[in-house]
Each structure stands twice: as structure tokens, then as C-alpha cells.
Fold each of these.
Amino acid sequence: MEKILVTRSSMPPLEEYVEEIRELWESHFLTNMGVKHKQLQRNLEKYLGVEHVDLLVNGHMALEMSIQAMNFPRGSEVITTPFTFASTTHAIVRNNLEPIFCDIEPNDLTLDVSKIESLITPKTRAIVPVHVYGNICDVVEIERIARKHDLKVIYDAAHAFGEKITLDGVEHGVCEFGDVSILSFHATKCFNTIEGGAICFRDEEFGRSIYRLKNFGIRDAETVDGIGANAKMNEFCAAMGLCNLRHIDSEIQKRQKVAERYSENLEGVRGIRIVQSQSNIQRNFSYMPILVENREQIFTALEREGFFARKYFYPLTNEFDCYKDRFDVSKTPLAFEVSRKVLTLPIYADLSLEIVDRICDVMRRESR
Ligand SMILES: *Cc1c(COP(=O)(O)O)cnc(C)c1O
């Protein structure tokens, strides 16, 4: 039986990639901010409409190092969501900071901004919101709160590559907001560099810190003044990004067709709620999230027919085994409820509409 997984990586034609890496056989320069790295950086700055992009080995290190570069005192508090991928919470904890979990909003499942201010204490230094499934957080309200309380804002934009939002008639790239936005270019994301990530920012001093931190804290040949790690993107990954970026718009259009077919099939079906997407955004259609009452039944029925949906995000990060007895899940009740109902359905550029119909047939049969 053919297996349909929740996602399938976009890849350029092989010849295009071979052509892209040909130079590397001439230069023998395989990593350490080479020509492919520099070119991808420039192309992304243009595509995303942001001032500066730095490239890293993956999205997680982009987030972890962004937080590290801000030098918050040990034990400072960071307001964030538990309805996210492990990476977001781990990046905070691995920096010796304390995540303070804020509940989510019922429609788009991003941070409930009306609850943020009640969580602020004298130890709060930052907010780390997540643009969940490409739904964009209430960036305006988050900025207001951050200014008022002098907090940094670091967006986990791993789901929101290339998205745009229109506010008061003006279109903005999603990564223009906050002090920093991080992106993931993992193989499973809509734009991939095999593994990879990026940091979008404006402050050049912050940029210099990141550049050093991702290269062991080395300032120059004889000066090491940061406790860095190794988080550089290599030339082969950057080359993959250069190729994939040429095709991204058409890949997103194909994803849109898949998402629309799901919506046509599932809208109004009893027991299935399609997670709402905002009307003022240009989406990338990375995920097809739905909420269902009888998740186990639907999940298993799909699996039996070779369709692998994902319980994403489940469990919440504040109930992970590694955080046992550390956080109180009952403080984020809506996130808890959603994590018990959510399923993300298979979606990728080349998923055939006929298979989407078959997946929806199973869903309709099993839902109640
Ligand atoms: C994928 C993802 C990350 C981590 O990115 P990697 O490139 O896999 O390290 C972080 N946050 C969210 C929300 C993600 O989906």
C-alpha cells in the first residue's frame, strides 16, 4: 500500500542542483560563509523584505542563539506558548531562562495577547510568540505591550516563511516584526535547505553577536570573546536553498490548491473544524490543521488506509516528560484542549487532489 506522509520535501530538478554546486568542486570551499551562503543571504533579504538575514545550521540554533545574544540575566522570565514544537521551549530553558506559559487564542491558536500583561513580573525580559501553522500573531498588540514594559520580542516564525500581512492597507513581510524573527529551513518546511535556519533582524550589533556565536565566539584569528558554538550553514545547504527559492512561489500555489480542496471537502462536516486562517494574510499553506472530537478514531482510521496525519502539537511542551513537575498545565487550558483535538493532515506541493478526496472520504465516514 502506498503511504502518504504528512509532508514531503520540495526538491529542485537534480540537474539544477548539480549546476549550482559545480563551483564548489572548483573552489574546494565547502563551508564557513562562502559564496553560496552569501548569495542565499542576499536573495532571502530581498524575498522576505527584511534588512538583515543571517543563516544558521537549523531553526533551533537560530532561536537559541538569538536568545543567547540578548544576554538576559540567568533566571529571567520569557513569556511564550506551550502550543508549539519542542524547539521553542527548549531554546528558552537551554539559555537558563524561565518560560512563562501564556494560553492561546481559540481561533488562530497563537498567543492570547489579552493574557500577556497579567504574566509580566519584574523578572520578565522577553516574549517569544509563535506564528502557529502560519497564522500570524497579533503583532501590533505584542509590540505595544513590549514597548510599554521594555521587553524584547523574538518571533518563532518557523511556520510562516514568506508570509505577508496587510495592516491599515499596508503590506508587511511577517519577519519585519519584533526585534528578531527566526525561520526554519528543515526538510519538512515549505522552503528547505535540507537542514537550515535563519535569523531576520535590524540591529547590526546584534547581527555581529550572532555571526560570532555561530562560529565558536571567534572575533578574529587571535580573539575569542563569546562562548559560542558551531551553527554555520554549509555551502551544500545554501546551494539547495538557492535552487528551492527559485521555485517557492509555484510550490506555494500548488499547496494552496491542496488546501482549498480539503476545505471544499471538509467544510460543514459535523465534528470537524478547520482551523481558521486570517483574512488579511498571504499564506504559505504549510499545514492543514483541523480540530476533531474523536481524534484517536480518525487518526487510526486514516493510518489503516495508509494516510499518516500528525498530532501536532501534542503533547504541549509544558507537559513534556523532561519538564515533569516543573510547569502547571492547568494554567493553559485552551492550549490543553486544542492539543487533544488537533490533527494536521498530509499537505505538500505534489499531493494529488484525488488522494485529498480519499483522505476526506475517510474523515467524513469517521467523524461525528
Ligand atoms: C521546525 C520548527 C522549529 C525548529 O526548526 P529546525 O530547523 O527543525 O531546528 C522551531 N519552531 C517551530 C515552531 C518549528 O516548527
Amino acid sequence: MLPEEVLRQAAAEMLDWHGSGHSVLEMSHRSQEFASIIASAERNLRDLLAIPDNYRVLFLQGGATLQFEMVPLNFLVGCGCADYVHTGIWSGKAIKAAQRLGKVNVVASAEDAKFTYVPPQNEWRLATDAAYVHYVANETIGGVEFHWTPDVELPLVCDMSSNLFSRPIDVSRYGLIYAGAQKNIGPAGLTIVIVREDLLGKAQPAPSLMMDYRTHTRAGSMHNTPPTYAIYVAGLVFDWLKGQGGLVAMAKNNYEKAQLLYDFIDASSFFANPVRKCDRSLMNVFFTLADPALDELFLTGAKERALLQLKGHQLIGGMRASIYNAMPLAGVQALVNYMQEFEAGH
Ligand SMILES: *Cc1c(COP(=O)(O)O)cnc(C)c1O
């Protein structure tokens, strides 16, 4: 979901952006107008996350999936190994991608319990010669989230695709953070990378031009044409987030929304969530029905009430309520009301 105010503003500015006589969709990425759009998006992004000056912000393409490869190409190739935490489907894909490029040490895996928890750090077997430690802050499909930041000496690399901007974070604890924009930020096509400057340029041999972070830091994300419209809409979302009270306010809302849904699921004998309570995602609430034969009926009834996109990921089935920043509490309440009604009827 995107904030309705943002969609309305994008619609109002569609034909003529700020009196420029043309649409952002038609703008050259080298124009003064677009330069002001990307500069303002970066400024607001930095303010919201309180990013220290020694970090660079990149607006790239290729999704988090390309970052699964760019990270090892820039930091693992030529080094001993890299540490990865395995908490679900997305970290599994990151591990597979890195294994093609170098040695991966899986420090901990929750596979034994079908990825329903985050292995605590005292159980991790960190390598002594690792180049970095990688983890996925929120497993979007299984609904498992880190509610703590790993405490490691090595550069910490994190996929925050589905929870960046959901709450304040301490960027200085990380070497690199990446996120595809389409979950909790804006339109598909934009990937945000936040990287500590001193980590750049150490790769031996240097990766290809497009895969080298330095190519993009040097060019201010304009080595080639960036995803201009996605950056513009993300910028509108950053304005909206500031107007809502920033990430402290978001964290409070997101906690209340998730709590409402989890409390209902836990009290129900019809719906269930298998994730360890302290590791449950505030963004993606996974749940199952007592009888999976009723799944389709549940989804049809939900759609009639404009409760959309509740079908769980094809890999694990069940249901998934994605309650990102723009989802109001009233939306979650409407879902709970429907679930209550459905449970009573079945
Ligand atoms: C969606 C998602 C990805 C993949 O993102 P793409 O933009 O499709 O490459 C990776 N990691 C997480 C945590 C995700 O939620």
C-alpha cells in the first residue's frame, strides 16, 4: 500500500510538475528539475534515518536480488569467506548467490524449525576470516523479523527490503544496508543502498563497472539512467513520513497494528501463526486457517471487502497480511473483523 496522499499528489502533478510544463515521466535525468527531485529525496532519506556523513546513499536498479550478487562481488571475492545467517527464503537466496562467488559460512540456520524463529547470536558460529556478516532483517515470506541488531566486529551487511523505514535504526552499526523499494517505500524498480565509504574499492579484482559500488558513488547514482519516476514517488513518500512524525511515529503505529492482529490470531482456535512471539514480523503477518480447504473461500470473501493481496507466498501457502507503513490501523481492524466473522461462520 502507498499513502493515499502520495498517490493523489503524484496524480495532481502527473501532467505538469511544478509548472515545468512536463511530467516527471518525461524528464531527462540530467535536467535541473530532476536534479532537485533526487537531491531532495536523498536529503529526506538521510534525515529520516539520521545517516552519518561517512555513508553514501545510492539509488540503483536490479532489486535486492542484484544486491545478493553485488555484495559478494565487492566484498567477498578474493577474501576467505563471508558469514551468512539463514532465517528463511530470502536469506537462502542470498546464500545461494554468494556461494557461486566465494566461500559462505552459514553461522546459524533456523531450518530445523521451518524458519519460525531468529537464531540468537550466542548460537552463531562466526568465522575468524570472514569479510562481512550478512542477514535479512525481515523475512517477508515467513514473517520473521530481527527486533535486535547483531553485535559483530566485522562489517554488518543487511537486506532491509521489507522493513527499512518501519522504525528508527542506528545506521552506524552497519557496513551496508540495501532494500528494494517496492515493499515499504515506493514503486518497483528502485533499490536503495546505504554504504560506509571506507568499505569501497577494496575488491581484488575490482568487479565489472556496473557491479562496482564506486561506479555509482562517483556518478551520484547517474552512471546510467536511474529509475526516475520511482525515485520521485519514493521522495513523496519520504515527505509523507516526515509529516507523520518520522520513524518514531511509524514504529509506534506499526507495533499497534501488528499487535492487534497477533492478539486476535493467538486468541483464536481457528487461525494460527507459528512464529516465536519475540521474532514475529511487524510488517508481514503470516497465518493459517484450521482447514486449508477453506483458503480460497476466505480469500474470495476478503476480496469482496476490499481486503487485498492476502494470499501467502506460493512457496509456503497460507495467508499473509502485509501491513506496511501506509496501512492504517483501520485497515487491520477491518481484517480482524472479517476474520472474526469468518471464524464464526466456519
Ligand atoms: C522482495 C524481497 C527481495 C527480492 O526483491 P527484488 O526486488 O524482487 O529483487 C529480497 N529480500 C527481501 C527481504 C524481500 O522482501
